[in-house]
Amino acid sequence: MKILVINAGSSSLKYQLIDMETEQVMAKGLCERIGIDGHLKHTPLVGGKPVFNEDLPLPTHSEAIAAVIDKLTSAEYGVVASMSEIDAVGHRVVHGGEKFASSVKIDDAVMAALEECTPFAPLHNPANITGINACKAVMGDVPMVAVFDTAFHQTMPGKAYMYALPYEYYQNDGIRRYGFHGTSHRYVSSRCAELMGKPIEELKLISCHMGNGSSICAIDHGKCVDTSMGFTPLVGLPMGTRCGDLDAGVIQFLMNKYGYSIDEMLNILNKKSGVLGVSGVSSDFRDLDAAAEKGNDRARLALDMFHYWVAKVAGSYVAAMNGVDAIIYTAGVGENSAETRAAISSYFGYLGVEIDSEANSKRGEDIMISTPDSKVKVFVIPTNEELVIARDTRDIVA
Ligand code: ADP
Fold this sequence. Notes:
The protein is α/β, with parallel strands linked by helices.
């Protein structure tokens, strides 16, 4: 069985074609600047075919999907003979609200429910829906599955997902913590249980997804019980450009003082804050590491804040679960920055965490970076959201 995994953004579309017999990625790629001009980078990973990396007109997502299918099946760049070899499509969907606690086969009722969830993710869900419709237009009856970023977090208890606002805003409007990065937290936590050789139902895990966007998740006996992102992905940790937790009074103060509209204010909180805002240097942790090393105090402060927040939120989840067996680092920063992992782990002395600095210096593999004697184990597990989407799609269409 071969499954095409699609992650559609408003002007971009990422894809992977995965052979489920071996779980090997046969080809992957990225359409960019959809609706502006258009560019496709297509990388075949089997059969020794060349990479295609060129501008081409992509006025809508339909042309993008058509270009992807064309490359996947072409003599020069292709990895399959025809579209009929693609058995199913798995779509990443950002927000499933309270309607979806797991992945689902897409039909008309699901499409209607996705539309209903759109007010919760006004930038992301429309792009995901456009991607699904474009796929339908180009691929006809090929079965399709939606895999939600929010679904894994639907097991949170009310005490974790409720905001202390008048209850009717939850009841009437769905205002609550939803959480994001669920597919990633789900993948790394189940992989961690495998690496520990124990059923996930016997473990208390904390997963730290640290990329451009970052979130932490408490996974108690295989179920998410709390996570740091909320109604939107803006809150929790300070991130690349997002502010993380913030007193709402600050918003009122700044809007009054500078006459910002709410859109201008949210643009500042989403795009100009986080480690970029504090450092004034960059949202990229590599740039921050370099600047801090050269003595830039604000870059140092931004990094210190990030480490502190991860440790603080993780510590609150130790309290929430009354213990923890393992802590997992994943995503761009978590997988690549040994300095970040060491700095965060240095807060976990009270848990009996000891880091093996040689293991911590390795990259690109699932690895335990704590010493054999460490009371709480620490792992680096490269995330693989596409594989989870492909596996769910296989299981649902089978
Ligand atoms: P996204 O949230 O966009 O999926 P990623 O998970 O790809 O992001 O993470 C991107 C982040 O990973 C960037 O901030 C980048 O600086 C960081 N990163 C990548 N490699 C390193 C590295 N070697 N050291 C520190 N940070 C890194």
